[in-house]
Specification:
heterodimer, A: 148 residues, alpha/beta, five-stranded parallel β-sheet, 5 helices, 5 strands, 42% helix, globular, disordered N terminus, B: alpha/beta, 3 domains, seven-stranded parallel β-sheet, 11 helices, 44% helix, 14% strand, binds guanosine-5'-triphosphate, binds magnesium ion
Amino acid sequence: MTTTAEHASGSHPAPIRMLIAKPGLDGHDRGAKVMARAFRDAGFEVIYTGLFQTPEMIASAALQEDVDVVGLSILSGAHMTLFPKIMAALRERGLDDVLVVAGGTIPEQDQTAVHDMGIARVFGPGTSMRVAIDYVREEVARRAVDAG
Amino acid sequence: MPSTPARALVDRAMAGDQRSIARLATLLERGGASAEQVRASLPSPAVGRGAGGEGHPHVVGISGPPGAGKSSLLSAVARFLSDQHRTVAILAVDPTSPVTGGAMLGDRIRMTDAALLPGVFVRSVAARSRLDGLSPAVTDLIDLFAAAGYEKIIVETVGSGQNQFAVADYVHTLVLVESPGAGDGVQMLKAGIMELADVYVVTKGDLPGAHLVSRELRAMLTLGERSRDWAPAVVLTSAESGEGVEKLVAALDAHRDWLESSGTIEDRRARIVRSAIRSRIEARLDRVLESDEGRQIVDQTVTGERDATSAAELIRARMAEPVSRD
Ligand SMILES: Nc1nc2c(ncn2[C@@H]2O[C@H](COP(=O)(O)OP(=O)(O)OP(=O)(O)O)[C@@H](O)[C@H]2O)c(=O)[nH]1
Ligand SMILES: [Mg+2]
């Protein structure tokens, strides 16, 4: 038995839904806004939640909005404490299959740890938006096939 | 009805499972065969039945100019209702870019904390193909949240001028929002649409000028001919201080009660059902137009092999055929 989702009208694929959130206490959301606009312009439906999001707010938004992907923007250096909490909050709500990516400054030595937490990809400050968008699009499609 | 994935999701949604509700909303928004399956599994449209009471949600539309403070106000309303152990689903609709198909759904910014409260569900909705600021799935989404047992379902739409009233066709109670400084209410007065809303809200009551706007509104409403015996309320609110939120909820409840006691609810039901029928037909039409055969018919009309009338007849015949799972 296949899932109903596969039978959507083929001509216009449904837009990918993406949550973009800025966890943590620093008040800079420029990066998150740039990311949100780039994804919107690439045809995504972007749910932008703004600054100061707690792990609960992010997970609850991902749940109620049924997003395909969560994009976290981080500058504060608090990723090692915040990311595990966010991932736990997502898992608690059964959202293990949601793709999670991060943008912002994450030092080289933390990359492996961050990946192990379940963040699929980190897009550093130098990454082109094109690369990030292509990655998310392909990864969401790949996961939809796997889930089918 | 065979047991389908949609059916199982609906069962879980009716038991209150947020994940299932959210997934069903996605399927309904997607349209096509997946939406038809969900529709077939949902209980008959609750929204046509009544306003308030068991399984009869009160559906409210809130519209007004960009930045008027609608989402902030709804956040405060949700908080108030949750405190009263009541339930509310908020459908926050934002436009889709006709060029890229993308959308920036920003209403949730004002509601991420309220969305955590018991009995509150916030869903951002892109208008997708529709240019009047509403999503083609809006009636289906209302039915979904009705089935999931939400007592109030509030649809936020951005609008200015005539298209802010599109939502009126889908709701029991229409709320129009104005804020100080934003054209000072003149816009809606000019359009001669004062009689359309059931409740008027002047937001940002903490800002200078808000009292003036609400006085002007009240004056205009008393001047206007009153064709109905419902006197539209004007409520001054502040999302900052919480002022007026309780009054607004009371006004919404009073309007719902008036609809029932006056019998006006019958007219509203008929209007909602007409819209529900219309959007189903439109969805079916889009499906046929976008099918291979639909495209072929369009192409033939472009090249002059066929005229538009015969093309329309053919499309209509295709629409009447039972939906196959493509
Ligand atoms: N002073 C004051 N500002 C407010 C109030 N409510 C909202 N605002 C501000 O007004 C701006 C817009 O608020 P929103 O709630 O997003 O308005 P909206 O009508 O939902 O906006 P759109 O959905 O974009 O059309 C924000 O900067 C809010 O902080 C209020 O009661 N008082
Ligand atoms: Mg809003």
